[in-house]
Amino acid sequence: MRNFTYFLGLSVCSIGCSVGTSVGPDESEATHKSVDAIFSDGGKECASMEPQPREKKWKIDSGGVEREYRVFVPSTYNPKLRTPVVFNFHGFALSPRIEEWLTDLSAKAEAEGFILVYPKGTGILFDSFNGGACCGTAATGGTDDVGFTAKMLDAIESTMCVDRRRVFASGFSSGAFLAHRLGCELSSRIAAVAAVSGTLSVEECNPSRPVPVVSFHGMKDKLIPYDGREKRGWTSAPDSFARWAKINRCSDKPVESMPGPEVMLHAHSECQDGAEVELWSLPNGRHAWPGGRKIARGTRVLSANDRIWEFFQNHPMPE
Q1: CA quadruple 226, 231, 234, 237: dihedral sign
Q2: Neighbour count for residue 50 (Cβ, 10 Å)
Q3: Buried b (16+ CB within 10 A) or exposed e, 259-297
Q4: Cα–Cα distance measured from residue 177 to residue 136, given in angstroms and rounded to the nearest whole number
Q5: Mean pLDDT of 166-191
Q6: pTM value?
Q7: What is the pLDDT of residue 166?
Q8: What stretch of H or E contains 68?
């Protein structure tokens, strides 16, 4: 508890002061068949691929700097079958390990059979990612995290049998800002985006194609306010939602509903190439991953992991 309180305190100060394990039991045979059924045969391209460790720290050179990331491989991984990849970028002053613990996303990867990548940010005192207006020295120093993501994907695709139509980006806080940015600047390789407690806060966003986006934001978030923070260039959650709807050329008015207690959904479904845009607003939600670890004060009324994976499954890269 002491360690958690310490790093959470750092996260609060860092965002406020800045400018700018293997899991899961064996699955049933039926589950294995259903997972394999959605992945296409790797063919000759994957013929030489070998099994990979369940968890491993990878390192690559990006812009002359050695960068790190952790890769979680589900027990169902077959190196001859194409497998989806999900990137999950951590929050300010956190780390890949803490992000994994807070979100419990590795359990979802194990259950559903996708490769999960936890990149490590950069910083002088606290690690973060450059999502445009946020966060920290990664943003103010202009770190090329879009290029870093492309390099990671190159390395993973050369080592593992990846379903290139099902590569997705997700993130929390600082990582969420970057996930949005990847939708703008790496849309040729990222099929869809999921962002928790972070908004689209880059000056220009001109993706090569419409990009499906699902966002989650607590309305009581004091670190990355739901209504934004204009002085820092942080767009509000509603404005971010509206901006993506415009980018994706959605022709319908946003539909608002309450799928559950203390949960509001704003959705555009009539968008070019089926690129839906969703915003899940949580009236009592704070700066936390919905459905994540209870100690992290995440709301229990919604599982971000479940909705994110469902959204990703519905939005592969167009053929």
Answers
A1: positive
A2: 8
A3: eeeebebbbbeebeeebbbbbbbbeebbbbbbbbeeebe
A4: 12
A5: 98
A6: 0.87
A7: 98
A8: strand 65-72
Q: What is the pLDDT of residue 23?
A: 29
Calpha distance 227→272 (Å, rounded):
27
CA 27 to chain centre: 25
Tell me if residue 250 falls in helix, strand or coil: coil
Q: Residue type at 133? A: A
**Beta partners for 72?**
55, 116
Helix (H, G, I), strand (E, B) or coil at 168: strand
pLDDT score at 197? 97
- Return d(Cα 169, Cα 196) in angstroms, integer: 11
Beta bridge partners of 117: 71, 87
Query: To which H or E segment does residue 212 belong?
Result: none
The pLDDT > 90 percentage for the chain reads 77
269 three-class SS: coil
Cα radius of gyration rounded to whole Å, the chain? 18
Domain boundaries, the chain: 50-314
- Give 50-314's CATH code, choosing from 3.40.50.1820, 1.10.3720.10, 3.30.390.50, 1.10.10.10: 3.40.50.1820
Distance separating alpha carbons of residues 147 and 153, to the nearest angstrom: 10
Residue with tokens 């970057």: 178
